[in-house]
């Protein structure tokens, strides 16, 4: 018989309750909990190896979030009818949790840890990703795995000016911002989100509201852990150390490393110099071996490399903190040299090349139809997106050789940040195009995702898409030591590696559009956060000035080789007439005009998208559809084509798909006995709609109504007898 499960319930606001429970499911895992809100139930499990793998020198944490389609009463649509590899939404949720959890583990903890988070019951209105980190942290809290602190994560949305914790799906669609925030009881750990140009002050307020809600969730986890009786964390094997060897490495290489760090060298030159010092260090240590020995023991060589890497880390950090100078010689707030071009490729519909220092993005924009929309699918909610962005990070961009094995989680995450930032400026309403942006990173030395935002903004304007403002982005870094700290603008790859924070901020001149922040230390105080935001704004505005100089505004229209698209809205009852029986009418239109026409019912009316390369064909299709959907009005004049001639008149088509009779008496003011020689099939002339048959509803048309009536001769003249001799 199962033991009575242990649970803790708390209120997240507005009377909405969340319950954390342990002891009922997955009891062989080191830690397992369910988190329940409404009908949404998430199961999180965590298992850690007792010992690290032999020779392990890094922390192998894996986090996977997966949604079971059964949770929403659905069967997967794949060929195998089962859940397969994680989709982008699941990858992004996994990254949100991973980035928040990773700093919680001791620096010398190298045991494999696997966190699995599964959506087992779905609620159409409740967003499960905002509770995934709570579930993972709670599973760690009730285990004996040695984490330093408990954390949690919430989403903050704003609807009609009101900030809401973990808003529903409907509220998010109505709101103007959403941020997911993770924090410990004292400090922020991770931020990611988007906004329609919020200010720095508004973001700080959002973070404070989120932090207050997170503290409630942390308290609930602490109480759940106490109820379970977890009081200690497991001991673990710590890496072997050699203090004497560490001192030798520092004495031999310290000054050499500092000299290179101060040299303001390019990325690869600096890397080569550091590698050369490492080789010299190994040779130096070999020279101290007892006579007869020529090779260092494997452990000594490994430890020496580790201590040398640590030495670089601390020397560079101290240089930045104490001397306020960086690896490439810049000051703390300096942005690297900028270079940007638009229209760099002849065939794409829009293109740009953005270079900042040693980071470069070649970005293209492609315009498509509604048929090109991207299906975004999760267990509870699926929709089609008209705007999507793909980010590619080939190995040559960092001068490396690696296997190409498809898109990495990092590429998905970086592309998502750029997408969320740029979509804030995308036109809405009747904008007809599907837009695909592709960023190919050609060089990388820090913040290629921010280069993607800048290049994407330039390419969108180059394509003639009416975004009203440029969006730029800048990556910020942080170095801390005790009470000392230095905030860095536009960080290098090495500064990202050795820093304590990677904080990316995107936006326009008027506000923030996107944020992504990761903290590698215990957390970030609100005071430092405010300072980092202000410094990021200055960097963002500097880049924006250069972008406006390169491309002041969007092109007034798409390029000549880009497809033309027009969107029409028609009454619902005309949808069938435009399509025709078996699609006959719409197929004929597409064939005759050389266009692609898509029609669907939206909000009880027909939405027609006409897509074509030639403007003439698009205009012809527009006129055709307007003709089909036009309601003939008595008294209006139309161009007509004679379709057939009969004894009593001519049948003409005066609107696409609409015919009427021009009676023989309405052809001319002159009395006609026959139409032979007067009108023939294919003739064109203007007609006036003079009425409809009250019985049949057929249209009555007149040609003579548009011809001036001839003047009649005086009656005496008409009846005068012929003169003599005639």
Automatic annotation (TrEMBL):
Role played: Involved in mRNA degradation. Catalyzes the phosphorolysis of single-stranded polyribonucleotides processively in the 3'- to 5'-direction.
EC number(s) reported in the record: 2.7.7.8
Organism whose genome encodes this protein: Terrimonas rubra
Annotated keywords: Cytoplasm, Magnesium, Metal-binding, Nucleotidyltransferase, RNA-binding, Transferase
Record lineage: Bacteria, Pseudomonadati, Bacteroidota, Chitinophagia, Chitinophagales
Keyword Oxidoreductase carried by entry: no
Gene responsible for this protein: pnp
Ranges where the record places region Disordered: 701-726
Protein origin, superkingdom: Bacteria
Name of protein: Polyribonucleotide nucleotidyltransferase
Required cofactor(s): Mg(2+)
């Amino acid at each position: 018989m199962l033991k009575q499960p242990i649970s803790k319930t708390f209120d997240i606001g507005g009377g909405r309750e969340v319950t954390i429970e342990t002891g009922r499911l997955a009891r062989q895992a080191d830690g397992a909990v369910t988190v329940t809100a409404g009908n949404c139930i998430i199961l999180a499990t965590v298992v850690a190896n007792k010992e690290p793998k032999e020779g392990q020198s890094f922390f192998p944490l894996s986090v996977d979030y997966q949604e079971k389609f059964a949770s929403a009463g659905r069967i997967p649509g794949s060929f195998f009818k089962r859940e397969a590899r994680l989709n982008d939404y699941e990858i992004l949720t996994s990254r949100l949790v991973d980035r928040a959890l990773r700093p919680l583990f001791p620096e010398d903890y190298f045991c494999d840890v696997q966190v699995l988070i599964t959506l087992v019951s779905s609620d159409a209105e409740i967003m499960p990703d905002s509770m995934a980190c709570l579930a993972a942290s709670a599973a760690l809290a009730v285990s004996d795995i040695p984490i330093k602190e408990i954390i949690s994560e919430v989403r903050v949305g704003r609807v009609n000016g009101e900030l809401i914790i973990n808003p529903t799906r409907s509220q998010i669609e109505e709101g103007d911002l959403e941020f997911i925030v993770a924090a410990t009881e004292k400090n922020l750990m991770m931020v990611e989100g988007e906004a329609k140009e919020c200010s720095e002050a508004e973001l700080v307020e959002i973070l404070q509201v989120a932090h207050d809600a997170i503290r409630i969730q942390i308290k609930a986890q602490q109480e759940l852990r106490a109820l379970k009786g977890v009081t200690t964390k497991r001991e673990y094997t710590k890496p072997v150390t050699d203090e004497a060897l560490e001192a030798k490495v520092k004495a031999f290489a310290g000054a050499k490393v500092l000299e290179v760090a101060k040299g303001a060298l390019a990325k690869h030159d600096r890397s080569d110099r550091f590698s050369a010092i490492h080789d010299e260090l190994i040779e130096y240590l070999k020279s101290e071996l007892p006579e007869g020995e020529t090779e260092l023991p494997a452990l000594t060589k490994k430890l020496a490399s580790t201590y040398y890497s640590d030495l670089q880390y601390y020397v560079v950090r101290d240089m930045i903190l104490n001397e306020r100078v960086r690896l490439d010689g810049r000051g703390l707030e300096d942005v690297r040299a900028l270079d940007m071009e638009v229209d760099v490729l002849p065939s794409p519909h829009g293109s740009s090349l953005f270079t900042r220092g040693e980071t470069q993005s070649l970005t293209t924009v492609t315009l498509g139809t509604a048929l090109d929309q991207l299906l975004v699918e999760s267990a509870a909610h699926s929709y089609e997106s008209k705007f999507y962005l793909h980010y590619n990070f080939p190995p040559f961009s960092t001068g490396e050789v690696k296997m190409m094995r498809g898109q990495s989680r990092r590429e998905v995450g970086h592309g998502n940040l750029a997408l969320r930032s740029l979509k804030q400026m995308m036109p809405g309403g009747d904008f007809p195009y599907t837009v695909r942006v592709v960023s190919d990173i050609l060089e990388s030395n820090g913040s290629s995702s921010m280069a993607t935002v800048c290049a994407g903004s330039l390419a969108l304007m180059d394509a003639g898409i009416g975004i009203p403002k440029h969006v730029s982005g800048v990556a910020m870094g942080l170095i801390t030591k005790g009470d000392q700290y230095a905030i860095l603008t536009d960080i290098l790859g090495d500064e990202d590696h050795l820093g304590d924070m990677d904080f990316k901020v995107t936006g326009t001149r008027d506000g923030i559009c996107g944020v992504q922040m990761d903290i590698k230390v215990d957390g970030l105080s609100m005071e430092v956060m405010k300072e980092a935001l202000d410094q990021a704004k200055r960097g963002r505005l500097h880049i924006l000035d250069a972008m406006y100089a390169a491309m002041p505004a969007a092109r007034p229209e798409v390029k000549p080789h880009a497809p033309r698209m027009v969107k029409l809205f028609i009454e619902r009852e005309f949808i069938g007439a435009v399509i025709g029986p078996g699609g006959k009418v719409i197929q004929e239109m597409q064939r005759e005009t050389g266009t692609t026409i898509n029609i669907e019912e939206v909000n009880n009316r027909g939405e027609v998208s006409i897509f074509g390369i030639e403007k003439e064909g698009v205009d012809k299709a527009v006129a055709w559809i307007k003709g089909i959907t036009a309601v003939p009005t008595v008294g209006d004049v139309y161009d007509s084509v004679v379709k057939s001639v009969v004894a009593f008149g001519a049948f003409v088509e005066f609107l696409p798909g609409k015919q009427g009779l021009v009676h023989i008496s309405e052809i001319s003011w002159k009395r006609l006995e026959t139409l032979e020689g007067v009108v023939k099939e294919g003739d064109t002339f203007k007609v006036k709609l003079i009425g409809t048959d009250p019985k049949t509803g057929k249209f009555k048309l007149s040609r003579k109504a548009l011809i001036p009536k001839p003047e009649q001769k005086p009656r005496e003249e008409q009846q005068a007898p012929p003169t003599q001799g005639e």
